[in-house]
Amino acid sequence: MKDAKLALESLCVHAGQPEEAAGPVVVPIYASSTFKFRDADHGAALFKGEEKGYIYTRMLNPTVQALEDCIARLEGGAFGLACGSGMAATHTAIAAHVSTGDHVICSESVYGPTSTLLTTVLSRFGIEYSLVDTSSLDAVKAAFRPGTKLVFVESPGNPTLVISDIAAIASLAHERGALLVVDNTFMSPVLQRPLELGADIVVHSLTKFLNGHADVVGGVIVVKDEERYALVRKTLNHLGGVLPPLEAFLVHRGIKTLHLRVERQCDNAQRVAGFLEPHPKVAWVRYPGLESHPQHELGKRQMKGPGAMISFELKGGIEAGRTMMNSTRLCQLAVSLGGVESLIQHPASMTHAGMSAENRLKAGITDGLVRLSIGIEAAADIIADLDRALESIAG
Ligand code: LCS
Q: Minimal CA–CA distance to 386: which of 319, 314, 316, 338?
């Protein structure tokens, strides 16, 4: 099936699964930390790279590699590298390409720890950064410096859902000798394929849509060529944040239904956003599928669907938001996103609490912003739950 030109839906089911005519249908869990060599020369040849094979699970494992192949195909890339978390993927992708004194441009509206990785961790190693509104190409252009090595874009951004023009930013970066890394977590390869738009590297938190069942923490990096793969693999081997085989198996299983889940989640989210926007207690709703979204047209060009994430603010501000979050029953009050269950949370005090208040506000993450991740339940049940929670707010 490796050579077949399969549609994404078929790749979700088959990519990375066994090719042999007879044998298991699903890649087994190779729960082995290490692999035997035929003889001493074989071991030495594997270490030198003269022969291909498995040495040690931190370096490569058959179950993990099967997942990496699957996601690389879904993203239209050449190689994948599975990591122990989305943050491990982000850290590894950046660390592989920057040195002391280099400069990174990053979307200002990103998952909180991605921003604080730059502002509080990598900055201690002399990596410079600019947090920028990457929905503005002028702002991106103005942020470049001679030492800019990498641009990191999350689109749509967590939690504001601001959309950045990936193809245009790829051109800007490449004209200036920088790489573009895109965090595609909010979209999954079903809705957006950044490598085809010109990005050099894609990262994901596997914890979200790809696994989809809230039972694994993981991440992945996808690259386009063998040279970059070797560089990033070496960095990952040394940093050590790899995904264990059991988790890889679970994510690979989750991906079989990715296209079905995402389709249903988009459909549900569109209905929920349509319910919230005209509601008298709601001040504003931000959802790429609404015409009121500032980059609605760009979203339609760049993305195959609007996704499952909705942000909104109530007229009663954070006090009303707190009452609502304490009142939902079907929508669980929990961070994370992209799973089959609908979740509700408050970025300013939860996922983005580690950012400075100044950086949060600059990125549009107001204190009253509430974020929903819409699951695959019946849309009517999700809406009824939100409706009931909104009714519990006084006035
Ligand atoms: N990238 C994005 C866009 C994310 O939303 C997250 C986690 C990560 C990377 C990091 O992935 P992890 O290390 O957690 O696998 N986002 C979360 C969120 O919004 N709520 O809880 C986690």
A: 314
